[in-house]
Amino acid sequence: MSSSCLLRLDLDLKDSIWRRLRPDGLVLQEDRYLRLGSLPAVDLDPRDGLDAAYLAIRKKRPLPLGRYLVLRPGLDRPGWVYQAVVHDLGIRPTCRGGDVRRALVAVVLNAKNRGINFLACEALGLLGEDGLTLTELIEAIDTAVLELCSELEGSVRVVFLLENVDDLEEVSNGLRSRILLRANRSLRNISGDTALVEFKHDSARLRFRFVPGSLSGYQVSRIDSSNLGREVVRFPSAHPSGTIPESRNPGLVEVTTRPGD
């Protein structure tokens, strides 16, 4: 049997980007007026149709929460760059978990459609004392993963970037705790140190693998209920050539959303 949906969720420190991590795409958090400035300065030519589209959308601020903008690779961008609009700096807290979930799910599905298999993602929603708490971030990631498992086809890897080891440990433990609470089969060891948890979500049977005691995420597969005896797990890595796949529907900028809660 082959898995019809595969997701690898990893955790790492923020300073690892472009050092030991070379993703195909980078997901940055933004506010609805694009005031966070997380995207490096880009040299856009208003005479170019694609550049002009991006500049036009920037003028439509404030942007609705839960949406994103995307820039394809350029001379000043080594890969695709997604700007997830999850903050409103005019209110406290600046972010809601539902907006993070919607933006994250939409970005991952769009990236997969473009042939992007490896995303590095800022800890969307965290903004000092003004944004989400770590507990709220864990809940948003957890619900996004379950939604993706129902919709995603193919393999994708997402690495969340945390500021420090303490945050990384709390998110890792929190995500695994939520999985264990749903488990309808006993935790069992697979191939040495790897643990497996299985449960049913909606109509899908999901299997989560992780290494107990490690500070990381997990691997999840959606299992064909007609063939539960075998499982094939394949996970993508960065493109060894360093090239970035083009979109099936190329465009410099895109704004999209998912239905509200």
Question: How is this fold's topology laid out?
Answer:
Layout: E1 5-13, E2 25-31, H1 49-58, E3 67-71, E4 80-87, H2 97-113, E5 118-122, H3 134-151, E6 154-162, H4 165-182, E7 188-190, E8 194-201, E9 204-210, E10 218-223
Parallel strand pairs: 1-6, 2-4, 2-5, 5-6
Antiparallel strand pairs: 1-10, 3-4, 7-8, 8-9, 9-10
Helix pairs in contact: 2-3, 3-4
Any overview of this molecule?
- The chain is an alpha/beta fold and 261 residues long.
- It has a domain of 157 residues: 3-Layer(aba) Sandwich (Leucine Aminopeptidase, subunit E, domain 1).
- The C terminus is likely disordered.
- It starts with a strand and ends in a 38-residue tail after the last strand.
Write a concise keyword list for the protein shown above.
disordered C terminus, 261 residues, Leucine Aminopeptidase, subunit E, domain 1, 10 strands, alpha/beta
